[in-house]
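Key result, reporting period 2: structure in, sequence out.
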């Protein structure tokens, strides 16, 4: 029986989500309709659905944001609530003796990896070389804390033109901050870019300042009004909801493409990562993929970032310890007010609002000179050359925990070659996994991509990267990692959200 899978469709202001449609012909999958504007007469145009692999959707001209916690583990349908007909009946003999669950088969692994995917062909002549993009999300936490967006929107710089955008938002302590970013970050950036163009001669430096201003302004909305909310006459429930985006936290990675100028603007707050694979010719005349970083990880393990934080907090030698800023794994995030609020407010919030999660930021011992973290992004601009094949990978750190940027570019390059060769079946690989039980090589994302375990077998480039991040051709590894359930799964693998955008590439 097909498992019920639910998805949250988040809408921007002025847009209306069409009803979610599912199909019983595709097991364990979700089919999304695109979000479309409602006309003045209140009618909606018909949805366009593009099927590719197990799940795909085309959102031509629409916005799409998401964060899905899918049923990763199968099993029978959950019991339904009792009705007037009386309680449900069960057969006791069906549950005795106890039967352990069976691990995911190769086919089931593929189903799980493809539960929440999208693949969007781009055919517009105004797309500046964008030909297709793929995406996928695989949850580890019981409710996935990652969110994402992909869309096109009116150019803030040229009337009648459009930009394209792809974003990944890696939440922590809950998903609410990441979900808010998926809905509101692009509108804020668009607003401040338009404001900048009306006041200054536009260059990359102006664009970068406007993007940074937008990031900081939205973060101030999340955390800057906490005292007002606490002191307001709002109901207790409304206060909880208004405070949540500032008490949860999220990294943000936003890539925006201006097709007219062929400029790729990437803004990064946190430890998600963007990388460009660019095809170049070797002296022998052969094509190879060059790895070009588009962002820099901003975790405490980045020594330059750690020194920046230490310089802002002299006399606090333990402000960065074991690669963490007062216990937080990254030095830049949205939300996370417990690392940003004034000490008096932080102490009050720590004692009155989810205090157990804030043990590492005790105002009496470690919390002396806030704020300790910031939402200000690092912004880069890269010009893409007309006709030069390239692809961009953006992903949450759940992918980068297991592979380097160079390995990710190599893997997508292999995927491109595989399709050019007619998608041959992968050769059989000896699993080589020891039969004795030892979880330690995989604890805290200890598994790393191995050259001899790389495989190419997925229609979706983002799924291809996720599969290889979790074991690749070694079925017992990937089946085992997918067998862990929350809350223990987070110690083996994080939520993984990936998008791959192709430029000047045709099959």
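The corresponding designed sequence is given below.
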């Amino acid at each position: 029986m097909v498992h019920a899978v639910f998805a949250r469709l988040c809408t921007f202001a002025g847009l209306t989500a069409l009803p979610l449609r599912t199909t019983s012909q595709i097991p364990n999958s979700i089919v999304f309709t695109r979000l479309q504007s409602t006309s003045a007469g209140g009618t909606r145009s018909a949805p366009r659905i593009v099927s590719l692999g197990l799940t795909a959707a085309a959102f031509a001209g629409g916005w799409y944001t998401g964060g899905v916690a899918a049923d990763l583990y199968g099993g029978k349908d959950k019991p339904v609530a009792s009705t007037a007909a009386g309680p449900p009946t069960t057969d006791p003999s069906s549950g005795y003796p106890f039967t352990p669950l069976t691990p995911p088969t190769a086919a089931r692994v593929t189903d799980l990896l493809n539960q929440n995917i999208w693949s969007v062909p781009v055919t517009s002549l105004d797309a500046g070389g964008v030909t297709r993009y793929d995406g996928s999300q695989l949850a580890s936490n019981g409710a996935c804390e990652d969110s994402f967006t992909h869309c096109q929107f009116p150019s803030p710089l040229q009337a009648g033109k459009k930009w394209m955008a792809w974003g990944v938002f890696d939440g922590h302590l809950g998903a609410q901050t990441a979900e808010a970013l998926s809905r509101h970050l692009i509108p804020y950036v668009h607003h401040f870019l338009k404001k900048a163009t009306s006041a200054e001669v536009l260059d990359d430096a102006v664009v970068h300042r406007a993007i940074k201003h937008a990031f900081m302004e939205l973060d101030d909305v999340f955390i800057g009004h906490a005292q007002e909310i606490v002191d307001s006459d709002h109901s207790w429930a409304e206060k909880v909801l208004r405070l949540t985006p500032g008490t949860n936290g999220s990294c943000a990675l936003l890539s925006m493409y201006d097709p007219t100028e062929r400029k790729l603007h990437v803004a990064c707050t946190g430890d998600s990562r963007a990388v460009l694979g660019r095809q170049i010719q070797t002296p022998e005349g052969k094509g190879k993929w060059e790895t070009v970083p588009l962002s820099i990880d901003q975790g405490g393990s980045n020594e330059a970032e750690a020194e920046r934080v230490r310089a802002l907090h002299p006399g606090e030698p333990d402000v960065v310890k074991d690669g963490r800023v007062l216990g937080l794994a990254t030095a830049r995030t949205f939300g996370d007010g417990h690392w940003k609020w004034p000490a008096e407010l932080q102490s009050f919030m720590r004692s009155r609002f989810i205090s157990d999660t804030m043990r590492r930021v005790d105002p009496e011992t470690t919390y002396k000179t806030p704020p300790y973290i910031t939402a200000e992004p690092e912004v880069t601009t890269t010009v893409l050359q007309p006709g030069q094949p390239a692809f961009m990978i953006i992903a949450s750190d759940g992918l980068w925990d297991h592979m380097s940027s160079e390995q990710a570019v190599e893997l997508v390059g292999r995927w491109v070659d595989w399709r050019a060769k007619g998608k041959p079946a992968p050769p059989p690989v000896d699993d080589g996994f020891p039969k004795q039980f030892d979880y330690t090589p995989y604890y805290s994302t200890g598994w790393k991509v191995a050259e001899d375990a790389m495989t190419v077998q997925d229609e979706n480039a983002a799924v291809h990267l996720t599969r290889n991040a979790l074991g690749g051709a070694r079925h017992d590894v990937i089946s085992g990692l997918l067998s862990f359930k929350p809350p223990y799964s987070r110690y083996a693998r994080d939520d993984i959200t990936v998008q791959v955008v192709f430029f000047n590439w045709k099959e």
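The longest strand covers residues 162-172. The mean pLDDT is 82. This case is discussed further under Risks and Mitigation.
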